[in-house]
Design a protein that fits this description.
mainly alpha
């Protein structure tokens, strides 16, 4: 009888572990097509966008942040309105003004706006050794903070690790480090 119970418990554990593995794989990759499409439009590596979403919300499209950031990439209402205005499409401007939570809560729109904003920030740091880390820090804490952390420094020769060590907000330092680590792991699996 005892062996029978052990066997049932072992089989149950295997089934649960398998279910968890397949659920997690589905959960973390169900937006891959949208990520790939919008990352390509803005010339961003899709593994980097995937890593940002993993860190920001772990793929929970309904998430609202502490500072009213919305959706998968935690886009702020201000960024959404800026994007909508730049498109020149009045319908987007109206939607972003009327109900920004619904507007950004839609996964495709959120990824589109998040990638647009990431690329807009990246333009400031393009070609620097710490380009990706600087862009991630600006995405998280704002470009003015990045400027503060690199003032009196030649950013053309500032390494990624040196930049990360200059990040003056512990949560932003952890954010940038975590995304870069996950991104590099995902990129290595290609």
């Amino acid at each position: 009888m005892f062996r029978y119970l052990i066997s049932i418990a072992l089989i149950g554990a295997i089934v649960a572990a398998s279910g968890y593995y397949f659920f997690r794989d589905y959960w973390e990759h169900r937006y891959d097509e949208l990520i790939e499409r919008h990352a390509r439009v803005f010339s961003i590596d899709e593994k980097l966008v995937w890593s940002i979403i993993y860190e920001e919300t772990w793929f929970r499209a309904w998430k609202i942040g502490a500072d009213d950031e919305v959706g998968l990439m935690q886009v702020t209402p201000l960024v959404a309105r800026e994007w909508a205005k730049e498109t020149g499409l009045r319908e987007f401007e109206r939607q972003a003004s009327d109900n920004v939570i619904d507007f950004l809560g839609e996964p495709e729109r959120n990824i589109q706006v998040g990638c647009w904003y990431f690329e807009k920030l990246r333009e400031r740091y393009r070609g620097r050794p710490a380009e990706t880390a600087m862009t991630l820090a600006a995405y998280n804490a704002g470009p003015s903070r990045v400027e503060e952390w690199v003032k009196d420094t030649d950013t053309q020769s500032l390494s990624e690790s040196d930049f990360i060590s200059r990040i003056g907000i512990a949560s932003t330092n952890a954010y940038v480090s975590s995304i870069l680590e996950r991104y590099r792991e995902a990129a290595a699996r290609r």
